[in-house]
């Protein structure tokens, strides 16, 4: 019975420890980046995610950083007209956050873990990253396995398996099959466990040199769990061979804790097969690897069982006492119970009856469930009390609601009576006032009529004079209004015409810029095809294939960016790196290169027209290094000067001719690029600066080209 429990602990250990290979940035480096208030949301998200790296065992300070994610992605996802790439970044951040909260919830026993997995699944599904979404479904299955909800466990595992099979993700399929096999072990379905564990192992049937640390860890887990299943089926030879395979592969990982646990399995297996001497050797090796009390507790307990089974009761008691002491220190009630029972039997067999009695009493106390029953009774009493108080409170609330309703009804009746009385009083007062107003009105009307008769006569004479004057004034006002309308119409027509002209010029400029970029694409593509053709003619097939692969990736980037007026500096640098890698291959690595960006520049938030730098880099390689057969050097630098962005490319070649600064060679690409720069800057006198690089003896040791790049900030 103990052996099964111990093997189960090993299975759980392997599952949990698999998260330990993630690398973690230091808190100081995260502090330094996040302290900059100017960084964009995307940079802040990347910094946090890279720093945490999906770890579920952070310090409190790490968790504080990670909890900065929800306000960022919550705010971002509420924005309208969001850039699709930025929206994907927000959605992915939300998925990663809830996935890791759920993973930590599994370890902490948080019942909300499934809800957090569902949120991760929701956000990742929206990004259409179905492989990552399936990973969250697997995590949900692991949670249900921990609480022994087998139907939901298998439902989630097989749901994830369908996604991985549709995506043909062999590695992930293997991982799910391993989880299913482990679940079968927990259900004690040994035969099915063996079937799924063996299916998972087929994925790792590759040369040892191709296996990563994580791969070797998974192989050890699978073989260890196969050993568990074979042991339960009494197939001792197969079990021992599985443990040996697990041990051989885990030794390469420099993981003493896992190695010691498998050595204990081998000791148990050797003892079951009757080889107590070999069992002792394995135990000694396990003892030597133990670096913490938890590992020692387990190894001592296994040694005690082996010696007890071999009837070496003194040795069994010695190791059981050490395991018991560590269990007390670690507050492990299960191990204390098991060791007290073993010590009772070992002392009894060796004739130490006083010690046996003490251990028997300790065992009875430890296994006695009275405390548990008392807790259950107390819980039941609390539940009854709660139900009674809740019922009583509900009755009081109901009575109070009835009283309130009666009181409200009485108030409504009184208010209605008062309103009716006020209405009658108001009507009576209104009638009296109306009669008074009628008398007053009749008197004033009579007086007014008399005044009107007199006034009409005077007004008739005055009106005739004013009518003549009004006619003159109306003509004057009409002519003035017509003139004003004519002037306003002319002004609006002029302004509308100017606006249309400005819009037309802007559209022409944009079309011209896109046509210029479109001209560059065939130029670059034809040059590259010529290069590939040359490699094939020289029978450099491998280089041609490599060149073609990199050329394909670069071409896709260029074609995608051709439709954009602006791209980020980071995208421009990535495209330049791909271009230089192709050129290195073409020129047999006769040169190396470096690309540097000034620290004050955030390459994610600065946007510039695409493909401005490539022609000048090409010229530096093709003409600047034409006298170099090896050890050429291209240096590219982006920097800010007086809030202006500059690009600089230098080489260590032959330089420009001494009698003039510019070369006679003017490629189509460079001509187009200069036209683009003039179009963006609106400066017909725009100049690309060139210089020779001189050593201390004024000898030319290279050339330098630099110019200002128009740019915008991310909104």
UniProtKB/TrEMBL annotation:
Q: InterPro entries, per this entry?
A: Bact_2-comp_sensor_kinase, HATPase_C_sf, Sig_transdc_His_kin_internal, TPR-like_helical_dom_sf, TPR_rpt
GO MF annotations, alphabetized: phosphorelay sensor kinase activity
The record's keywords, sorted A to Z, are: Coiled coil, Membrane, Signal, Transmembrane, Transmembrane helix
Please list every transmembrane segment annotated in the UniProt record, as residue ranges: 475-494
- Residues of the signal peptide: 1-22
Domain (Signal transduction histidine kinase internal region) spans 513-591
One GO cellular component, as annotated: membrane
Coiled-coil parts of chain: 405-436
Protein name in the entry = Tetratricopeptide repeat protein
Tell me the lineage of the source organism.
Bacteria, Pseudomonadati, Bacteroidota, Flavobacteriia, Flavobacteriales
């Amino acid at each position: 019975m103990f052996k099964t429990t111990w093997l189960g602990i090993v299975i759980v250990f392997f599952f949990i420890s698999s998260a330990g290979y993630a690398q973690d940035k230091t808190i100081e480096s995260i502090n330094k980046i996040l302290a900059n208030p100017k960084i964009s949301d995307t940079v802040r998200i990347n910094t946090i995610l890279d720093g945490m790296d999906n770890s579920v065992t952070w310090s409190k300070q790490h968790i504080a950083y990670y909890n900065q994610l929800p306000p960022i992605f919550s705010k971002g996802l509420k924005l309208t007209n969001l850039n699709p790439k930025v929206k994907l970044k927000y959605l992915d951040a939300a998925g990663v956050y809830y996935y890791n909260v759920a993973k930590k919830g599994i370890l902490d026993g948080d019942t909300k873990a499934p809800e957090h997995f569902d949120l991760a699944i929701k956000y990742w599904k929206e990004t259409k990253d179905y492989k990552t979404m399936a990973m969250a479904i697997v995590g949900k299955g692991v949670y249900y396995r921990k609480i022994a909800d087998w139907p939901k466990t298998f439902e989630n595992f097989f749901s994830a398996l369908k996604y991985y099979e549709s995506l043909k993700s062999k590695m992930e399929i293997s991982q799910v099959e391993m989880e299913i096999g482990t679940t079968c072990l927990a259900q004690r379905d040994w035969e099915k466990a063996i079937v799924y564990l063996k299916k998972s192992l087929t994925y790792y049937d590759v040369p040892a040199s191709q296996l990563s640390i994580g791969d070797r860890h998974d192989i050890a887990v699978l073989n260890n769990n196969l050993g568990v299943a074979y042991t339960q089926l009494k197939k001792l030879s197969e079990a021992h061979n599985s443990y040996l395979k697990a041990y051989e592969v885990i030794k390469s990982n420099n993981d003493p804790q896992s190695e010691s646990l498998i050595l204990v399995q081998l000791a148990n297996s050797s003892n079951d097969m009757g080889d107590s001497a070999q069992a002792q050797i394995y135990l000694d090796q396990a003892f030597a690897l133990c670096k913490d009390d938890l590992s020692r507790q387990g190894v001592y307990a296994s040694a005690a069982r082996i010696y007890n089974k071999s009837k070496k009761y003194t040795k069994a008691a010695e190791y059981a006492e050490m395991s018991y002491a560590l269990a007390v220190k670690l507050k492990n009630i299960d191990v204390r119970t098991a060791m007290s029972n073993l010590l009772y039997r070992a002392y009894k067999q060796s004739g130490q009856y006083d010690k046996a009695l003490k251990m028997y009493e300790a065992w009875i106390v430890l296994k006695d469930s009275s405390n548990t029953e008392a807790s259950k009774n107390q819980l039941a009493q609390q539940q009854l009390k709660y139900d009674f108080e809740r019922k009583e409170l509900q009755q009081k609330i109901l009575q109070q609601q009835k009283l309130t309703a009666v009181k409200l009804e009485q108030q409504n009746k009184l208010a209605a009576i008062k309103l009716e009385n006020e209405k009658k009083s108001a009507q009576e007062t209104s009638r009296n006032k109306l009669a008074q107003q009628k008398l007053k009105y009749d008197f004033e009307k009579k007086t007014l009529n008399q005044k009107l008769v007199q006034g009409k006569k005077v007004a008739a004479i005055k009106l005739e004079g004013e009518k003549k004057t009004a006619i003159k004034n109306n003509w004057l006002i009409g002519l003035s209004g017509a003139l004003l309308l004519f002037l306003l119409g002319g002004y609006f027509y002029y302004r509308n015409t100017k606006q249309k002209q400005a819009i037309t010029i802007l559209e022409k400029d944009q079309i011209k810029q896109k046509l210029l970029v479109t001209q560059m694409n065939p130029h670059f593509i034809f040059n590259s095809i010529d290069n590939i053709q040359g490699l094939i003619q020289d029978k450099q097939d491998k280089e041609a294939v490599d060149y073609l692969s990199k050329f394909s990736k670069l071409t896709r980037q260029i074609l995608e960016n051709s439709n954009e007026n602006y791209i980020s500096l980071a995208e421009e640098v990535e495209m330049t790196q791909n271009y230089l890698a192709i050129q290195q291959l073409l020129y047999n690595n006769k040169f190396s290169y470096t690309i540097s960006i000034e620290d004050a520049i955030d390459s994610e938030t600065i946007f510039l027209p695409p493909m401005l730098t490539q022609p000048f880099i090409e010229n530096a390689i093709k003409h600047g290094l034409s006298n170099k057969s090896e050890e050429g050097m291209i240096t590219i630098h982006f920097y800010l000067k007086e809030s202006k962005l500059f690009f600089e490319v230098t080489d260590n070649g032959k330089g420009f001719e001494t009698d003039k600064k510019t070369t006679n060679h003017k490629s189509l690409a460079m001509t187009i690029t200069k036209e683009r720069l003039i179009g963006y800057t609106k400066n017909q006198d725009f100049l690309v600066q060139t210089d020779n690089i001189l050593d201390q003896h004024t000898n030319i040791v290279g050339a330098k080209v630099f110019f200002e790049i128009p740019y915008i900030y991310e909104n």
